[in-house]
């Protein structure tokens, strides 16, 4: 009676390379994984495969590369968001965006990341509205008016502090008068 030898993922890869030389290594891994683990989704397969090929990468980096291959029409930041949602379901969408942006654009400040992220999620908002919401999340100890001021300073650097406060106050207290 013939002994049943369990399939190994490396075996599948080598075999696939021989049969389908036009495929990339990662394509081989994916097909191989699908055969061994049919209960997994395509993206789960890609992640496991990438982990095997590139152990020095973080899980989130793997997800990004995998998503790029599966969904080339998406932007890098969209990939990160979807990947983060899968890894950290307890986080809010905006938290995911922030972490993702920090990884892609380390030269940016946290508040810059939040703004770009918010613009993508809430296109109907104005830039200043985005900044305010972002600031509230980063600096919960600040008052609303303090948030507006910091945000305005970033958008309108040519204005004086008092001009910023006035515009901010007008937005928060529409019944108020402009400071002179």
Question: What is this structure's SSE topology?
Answer:
Layout: H1 9-19, H2 25-36, H3 42-53, H4 59-70, H5 76-87, H6 93-104, H7 110-121, H8 127-138, H9 144-155, H10 161-172
Helix pairs in contact: 1-2, 2-3, 3-4, 4-5, 5-6, 6-7, 7-8, 8-9, 9-10
Q: What are the segments in which pLDDT stays under 50 over at least 5 consecutive residues?
A: 2-9, 175-180
What is the number of E strands?
Answer: 0
By DSSP (H or I, 4+ residues per run), the number of helices equals 10
Main sheet characteristics: none
- Run of helices and strands: HHHHHHHHHH
Average pLDDT for all residues: 51
Distance between the termini: 96 Å
Structural class comes to mainly alpha
Count the domains: 2
Q: What overall form do the CA principal axes indicate?
A: rod-shaped
The helix content is 55-70%
Computed Rg: 24 Å
Short description:
By secondary structure, this protein is mainly alpha-helical. The chain contains ten helices and no strands.
Give a verbal description of the structure.
With 180 residues, this protein is mainly alpha-helical. It has two domains: 7-90, no CATH class; 109-180, no CATH class. Helix content is 66%, strand content 0%. The protein has ten helices and no strands. α2 crosses α3, α3 packs across α4 (59-70) and α9 (144-155) packs across α10 (161-172). It is rod-shaped, with a radius of gyration of 24 Å. The termini are far apart.
